[in-house]
Amino acid sequence: MKVFFFSIFFIGIFVNAQFTYPDPKISSPEEDIEEKDELINLIIGKQKIKEFHKKSLGAENETNIEVKKFDIQGNVLFASDITEMPPGKPTRKDEFQTVSEGGKIISFEQSSLDFPTNKTEIFYDVKNNISKITEKRKEGEYIYEKGRLIRVIEKNTGEKTISTYEYTPTGKVTRISSEYISSKEKPSTSFHTFAYDMKGNILSNLLKDEESIIEKKYSYTDNLLTKYTLTFNGNKAKDQQYDYDENRRIKKMIKALYNPDKNTSTSTSSLVFNYNYKNGLLAERSTLFDGKEPAYVETFSYDDQKRIVRVNTQSENKVVANVNISYGNKTITLTGDTYQAEYTLYE
């Protein structure tokens, strides 16, 4: 029961799943900032990744090989994660494979060393909306009205969850009401509500069930996110603040974590990120743990086309990591101390 509620709260994020389910996307501006801040996204900007290959060395002489293939919309078509172990230990392989027909994914399979292959089939209505998703002992039915998803019925061996969606006139989700019915437990309900400002920025994301209340709150200045807070049952669990320069680029980010059971300042840890720019480009990014030195300092180097070609990370004036970036014909290669990753981009 709790697992279902947790997955709904973080709509769009499914652990160990690569397929994009038809649930409406809920804005998470704090996640958008973190994604944009990742090195590969600093490098490629708005370009789309077609394929990704990475080989890295792990502990105890392990070698990890990761492969992903995407369509132009960013959906994962194939994913493979292989861990080659030292002699005498089994090689681990996790794989995700889709089957497409007429430009639509009609099924996918997931397999791993720990679990048998699981096949999921996807069915569409006459308007090409996903109408049903089935797998072993599970089924999801999706109902639409005027192009919007209004109801999801999920069935799983003696259990059923019915979720109803409500929207603003502009199409933003304002409420998700879910009813859980089980042959072994008493029925229960949850309510997930969302509020927005006049510009469409999300202000609150609140999930309430019969056991807990989880809420995200957001504040903005000049349409830029300046504060994000996460609470559990009214107790603060996370607090993040953002400052920007005159060019609307992030200048400083502070992340504080709390113990939501105690909610005291003595139960916190924090990260402080500072950003410095030169000639319009990110030149340096530093990270302080609990606001204390020594900081980790990343220095960015560029070529004459203003592309990142090297990232040097130091702490206490010692180099702790290097990443070199090279560019080919629609390919970008990142070479670190223990890994090499190649990205192929769409035209």
Quick summary:
It contains 3 helices and 24 strands.
Rg, Cα atoms, Å = 23 Å
Q: Helicity, in percent?
A: under 10%
- Secondary-structure-derived class: mainly beta
Sheet with the most strands, sense and barrel status: 24 strands, antiparallel, barrel
**How widely separated are the two ends?**
44 Å
Query: How would you spell out the order of helices and strands?
Result: HHHEEEEEEEEEEEEEEEEEEEEEEEE
Q: How confident overall, as mean pLDDT?
A: 89
- What proportion of the residues form beta strands (DSSP E)? over 45%
Shape category = globular
The low-confidence runs, each spanning 5 or more residues with pLDDT under 50, are 1-17
Protein name: YD repeat-containing protein
Organism: Chryseobacterium culicis
Structural summary, described in words:
This is YD repeat-containing protein. It comes from Chryseobacterium culicis. By secondary structure, the chain is mainly beta. Among the domains are: 1-157, no CATH class; 162-227, no CATH class. Helix content is 7%, strand content 59%. The protein has 3 helices and 24 strands. It has helices at 2-9, 29-37, 39-44; strands at residues 49-57, 63-70, 76-84, 92-101, 104-111, 118-124, 130-135, 138-145, 148-156, 159-167, 173-182, 188-196, 202-208, 213-221, 224-232, 235-244, 250-257, 269-278, 281-289, 292-302, 308-315, 318-327, 331-335, 339-345. It has a 24-stranded antiparallel β-barrel. The longest helix has 9 residues, at 29-37. The chain is globular, with a radius of gyration of 23 Å. The two termini are 44 Å apart. Residues 1-17 have low confidence and may be disordered.
